[in-house]
Amino acid sequence: MSTATDHRPRLRARRDVVVSLSTVVLLVTCVVAGHLFLDDTALRPNSALRLLPPSIGHPFGTDHLGRDLFTRVVKGLALSLGIGVLTAAISTVISAVLGICAALLGRRVDGVISWLIDLSIGIPHLIFMILLAFTVGGGIPGIVLGIAFTHWMSLALLVRADVKQIRDAEFILVARGLGRSSLFIACRHVLPLVLPQLLVGFVLMFPHVILHEAALTFLGFGFSPQTPAIGILLSEGMPHISSGMWWLAVLPGLALLLLVLGFARLGDRVRTVLDPATSNG
Amino acid sequence: MALTVSGLSYGYAGGKLLYRDASFRVEAGAVVGITGPSGSGKSTLGALLAGDLRARSGEITIDGAPLPRRGFRPVQLIHQHPERAVNNKWRMRSVLRESHEVPQETLDLLGIRSEWLDRWPAELSGGELQRFCIARALHPATRYLVADEMTAMFDAITQAQIWHALSGIVRERGLGMVVISHEPALLDRLCDEQIAVESFRD
């Protein structure tokens, strides 16, 4: 009855954004601070400290070469964060450019881009990703390009649909009548209107990238074994699970899960607040 | 010097033709009224004249040259709903600047106050917004104006003010104007000539 009741779901959604945003910021701060301040000597092999279970000195225990697992996990997550930002940014830009071009530049361009989207969706993305990473030669470029070039389609489709709804708006017809180019219309009229969609896409892309980076590395197509990437830690830890040394795989896995869930939740909550259709519920 | 329409035909996909072989001309400096009941194709004719739609057949020429496909169009359309014709994420100053640096004199004639320039579209009334849309359409290169039910949404006083200001500017610049409306009193007052859209039907 009262208007106060009507605002409650929206307020709750906003509070959720604040909560999940703080979680993510806290996690990221910890990882970045750890990456900057943790002592690198803990990463040197030390045969006296091999395969120790978690303790005060080594919160995550040590691995089969006597390296401190906590330090390795923090360094690995820092690497994942960097790659996540870079890859999500590249794929968001691809989605935005192709989605806007498809909707704005006429039927022929739309046909070509839609065909490209269907084609890319049609190829099993894990295989495509491995092929791309392998072609570029593994390492950071292989991972970044492999994931970015296989994960732009759904956001591009969303952007294309959004832009199609506004491309015949009167203010855009007026802009064309005043002689404004498609580039001007795309940058000044269309981009600000699809920016919320892009922001949500970027945040939701992020956990995806981190998981795929770990998967690629786990399968041997990502980083070299010396890099303290989460995928490497997981693949090194797996054989030891059966012999009772659970911390080698479980603790890095949990750390990864925490970061990924934090970002996924944040993206979800931001979408709820920005999208009027879902925020009314 | 005239906006000429010859042999124009247009119909929406799957529907009957709205006009068959329509021809008329609007001399520079003349005001021509287009009348007709709702749904008879008045606004579609306005969109065709402004180049927002392309005719099935026939020709529209401006002072002898065909309508330009790209770049600035010398026929400017003023829409019925100003709030849809401006991007609500732009301040009014930017809305004007998308067209040209509108001289202070034009702003004064149209009754646009300088403090409105820094407002968002949502902070202005429909009548105030429409004045901006008119100022925007009065680009130095504009030769003809098409006013599509431009003041149908406003009260009598606002209507009178807007038309008074615009008529003065149009006369002074020697622009041709097409007034689309279903209000006989308004057309009788403004127009040198009136055309009923139904006369283009067959």
UniProtKB/TrEMBL annotation, chain A:
Keyword Cell membrane: yes
Any one GO CC term of the record: plasma membrane
Primary location class: membrane
Entry-linked InterPro entries: BP-dependent_transpt_permease, MetI-like, MetI-like_sf
Residues covered by the ABC transmembrane type-1 domain: 77-267
GO biological process, one term: transmembrane transport
Membrane-topology descriptor: Multi-pass membrane protein
Signal peptide: none
Compartment list: Cell membrane
A Pfam family annotated for this UniProt entry: BPD_transp_1
Sequence similarity: Belongs to the binding-protein-dependent transport system permease family.
Protein name stated in the entry: Peptide/nickel transport system permease protein
Source organism (scientific name): Planomonospora venezuelensis
TrEMBL record, chain B:
Keyword terms: ATP-binding, Nucleotide-binding, Transport
Sequence ranges assigned to domain ABC transporter in this UniProt record: 3-199
PROSITE patterns documented for this protein: ABC_TRANSPORTER_1, ABC_TRANSPORTER_2
Pfam families per record: ABC_tran (PF00005)
SUPFAM superfamilies: P-loop containing nucleoside triphosphate hydrolases (SSF52540)
GO-annotated biological processes: transmembrane transport
Superkingdom, natural source: Bacteria
A GO molecular function held by the record: ATP binding
PANTHER family: D,D-DIPEPTIDE TRANSPORT ATP-BINDING PROTEIN DDPF-RELATED, TRANSPORT ATP-BINDING PROTEIN
Record family assignment: Belongs to the ABC transporter superfamily.
Identification of the protein by name: Peptide/nickel transport system ATP-binding protein
Organism: Planomonospora venezuelensis
